[in-house]
Design brief:
Layout: H1 9-15, H2 38-41, H3 53-77
Helix pairs in contact: 1-3
Length: 84
């Protein structure tokens, strides 16, 4: 059973072209947390350390979204759900 995961919310909003309103303690203000900055937000930590808790939250949201898609793929492969 796949449960609802609110951790995917930031990823879904960004992919739908919304700007995430910065929370208290997030490093950047304004429109930074948007799809136009996704390459920077999801950068390799070897390029530049990930220290902003806003970026950490958004990266975690994308991790959750990818895990969800992996679970769907698994369920399709074992014929528990079918694609139409």
């Amino acid at each position: 059973m796949i449960k609802k995961d609110n951790n995917m919310e930031y990823a879904k909003l960004i992919l739908d072209d919304y700007v995430i309103t910065p929370k208290e303690g997030w490093k950047f203000r304004g429109n930074y947390y948007h799809i136009s900055n996704l390459e920077k937000i999801l950068r390799s930590h070897s390029q530049e350390p990930i220290t902003d808790i806003g970026e950490v939250a958004i990266r975690g949201s994308f991790d959750s979204l990818l895990q969800f898609f992996a679970k769907l793929d698994y369920l399709v492969k074992i014929h528990h759900i079918r694609l139409k």
